[in-house]
């Protein structure tokens, strides 16, 4: 990872609101398409027709495309930078999406309510273990950032206590302790019957970011790793 040297100018709050109003429902519509694709039982002719329609829509969207990912264009910590994020991204249909909000009274504590549908299945009817890991990596990293100690995941240890059912879940994260550029965070996925997966991770502000901050004299906030 490197810092985007272009540092593109931020857009106005009005433009941000307009883009949010445009892209959030569009992305949600594609999530619905994914769920419908997995669960449809329509006849083969309808599937073939739908495939042609989806391919036509894809071709229309490809008429104008960014080179590479969204975050690479909008830069660290910029308002639209996390829109491509695979967990929280407003423009990423793969993202459930998670919407972490401050909660609880532990340092950096954040919670997110999420409903995981058929797209996140591992064992029949259950959440894929890698998906739980994905959500926990993000929520622990968000907790570290919320505590003013952002970093990249150095390690993430998971304990799968019991199966996680698809459906409504809560994901919680908080900071356990920190030493300089190293922050240890904890969290869990909570299902209808209590915690299912527990996580403990180390988040490190990388050397390049530490050196950048040192050069800037800490005048700017550390980069966010979303
Ligand atoms: C609103 C914001 C929300 C943000 C949410 C973010 C959630 C998403 C988080 C991610 O998914 S990040 C992507 C996944 N992670 C990575 O790709 C990280 C890949 N690894 C690295 O880039 C570097 O190895 C790392 C940044 C972790 C460390 O690089 P450094 O250049 O800082 O290395 P350095 O050797 O200086 O290590 C710094 C300290 O961390 C320690 N350390 C590094 N890796 C460790 C490890 N695995 N276990 C234990 N300690 C570790 C290391 O010993 C050292 O301790 P001390 O400073 O006390 O000597």
Automatic annotation (TrEMBL):
Classification via SUPFAM superfamilies: Thioesterase/thiol ester dehydrase-isomerase
Domain of life: Bacteria
Keyword Transmembrane helix included in the entry's annotation: no
Family: Belongs to the THEM4/THEM5 thioesterase family.
Principal subcellular localization: membrane
Subcellular location field: Cell projection, Ruffle membrane; Cytoplasm; Membrane
Enzymatic reactions: (9Z)-octadecenoyl-CoA + H2O = (9Z)-octadecenoate + CoA + H(+); dodecanoyl-CoA + H2O = dodecanoate + CoA + H(+); hexadecanoyl-CoA + H2O = hexadecanoate + CoA + H(+); tetradecanoyl-CoA + H2O = tetradecanoate + CoA + H(+)
InterPro entries: HotDog_dom_sf (IPR029069), THEM4/THEM5_acyl-CoA_thioest (IPR052365), Thioestr_dom (IPR006683)
Listed CDD domains: PaaI_thioesterase
Keyword Hydrolase (UniProt): yes
Membrane-topology annotation of the record: Peripheral membrane protein
Protein's name in the database: Acyl-coenzyme A thioesterase THEM4
Enzyme's top EC category: hydrolase
GO function term, MF aspect, one: hydrolase activity
Keyword annotations of the record: Apoptosis, Cell membrane, Cell projection, Cytoplasm, Fatty acid metabolism, Hydrolase, Lipid metabolism, Membrane, Transit peptide
Protein EC: 3.1.2.2
Stretches assigned to the Thioesterase domain: 125-183
